[in-house]
Input
Amino acid sequence: MIATSTMLNGVLLGGLYALYGLGLSLTFGIMRTVNLAHGDIIVLATYLALITTQVLGLTPLMSLAVLVPVMFCIGYGLQRLILNRTLKDGMMPAVIITFGLSFVIQNGLLLGFSADRQVLRQGAIETMGVTLAPGVTIGVFPILTLAVLLVMIFALQAFMGRTLLGRAFRATSDDPATAELMGIDGKRIYGLAMGLSFAIIAVTGVVMGIRSNFSPFDGPARLIFAFEVIIIGGMGSIYGVLAGGLILGIAQTIGGAINPTFFQLAGHLVTLGILVVRPSGLFPETIERD
Amino acid sequence: MALLEVENLSAGYGLFQALRGISLAAEEGETLAIVGANGAGKTTLLRTICGALPAMTGRVSFDGTSIENSSAHQLARLGISMVPEGRKLFPSLTVEDNLIIGSYPKRKGFWTVERVYALFPELVKRRNNRGLDLSGGEQQMVAIGRALMANPRLLLMDEISLGLAPIVVNQIYKSLPEISGHGTSIVLVEQDLNRALSVSNHVYCLLEGHVELSGLSAQMDRQALIDAYFGANA
Output
């Protein structure tokens, strides 16, 4: 029973980690640059949700109706106005800019909200549980998290596979110069990809804020989990994000069941192990550029 | 007025000037062949026309509009499509997705996925393969089909016979009259003089970045063209 319970909780925790990784995987897959502020932007989205719930009196989940479009615009603007200016100089400027952005967000949030831990209140659903068998109880909200993740993964996969814009995303990922010859404006595609990533981050931030309390400095730890998810799953692969999240979540809960201090260490060890055995992850999708 | 007019065009890479004052013109529906030795500037010329490379000096006009400062994605929407050297299929896309992505400029016209398959029937059984699983000839057909999907007014083709068996090259060249028959002008870079002359209305021979010789293909003196190709009079 304990084993079943541990596995189930690992899977459900993995759903949250996969959410962390999804937005990062999307931008890395298309732009081939790493957004080092990814974790802090998740936390920023959580604080924006906090403001929205306080000002408009919405529940956190309802605040997504405002937050998703706002975050899309912030992401699109960040890419078009700042990051796109550095494209011709390789990936390093974007890494340095997002590294700096990470500090700006952390300290901006500290100024605005203090270091006190906050929480998003969704109500009874936060603590509701289902007992599947004696000794095996799982939370309703973690199940909802996993469901949201699956819907977003299938929607993203369908968008990439079946729409003209999705094909343009993949063509730009493969070969941006040739994509330009097809009439594809790479800078616009990059802007849309970052916007889409930020929209996913909006959902991630709200889910995170409902599940646990948060403070301005929680971003870097989220970034590490997101990295581990895409390292395990394979760069640029959408289904790989699901696999990576589940493996990381299960590894952590098994580690934690053995000894509570092994919780995070177990996840890091599994990630390192997969890096050694399969350096490009389980389902690498991104094709090496010339 | 010609569909494409290039006047005194210079372009290059960094300090290296590959084109030195090129002028040429292509009428609507015409096929132009550009010949010349390696390094003569043929590919640079096509890349500059399609906006992939900025012009240093000179003018390029398309249907009366100056385009030398336009980017490649803008020109694709105006109706200039490119079949790049080396085919450059998108490796993670299937054959059919490679064709579909060609329709991104959303230009209406004759060419559709089904009509490209009718032009190159061997692609039908390959439609769900990834681009790089194909033979070189099949890849070239996909690259041409992908460019046609934009229903271009001007089709630029860079060395479409490169590295292919003669029998495959014959097959691909057979498709050109059908392509221009639907109103598309073609500018073709080709190393093989006989092929270039047989398929084109006009031929331009480049040498070290300038036009060494040009004229109607049907009236071209072959020996003069060979001399121009190798720079015998330079």
The interface with chain A takes residues 50-52, 71-73, 76-77, 81-82, 84, 88, 90-93, 97, 100-105, 146, 150 of chain B (CB under 8 Å). The two ends of chain B are 32 Å apart (CA to CA).
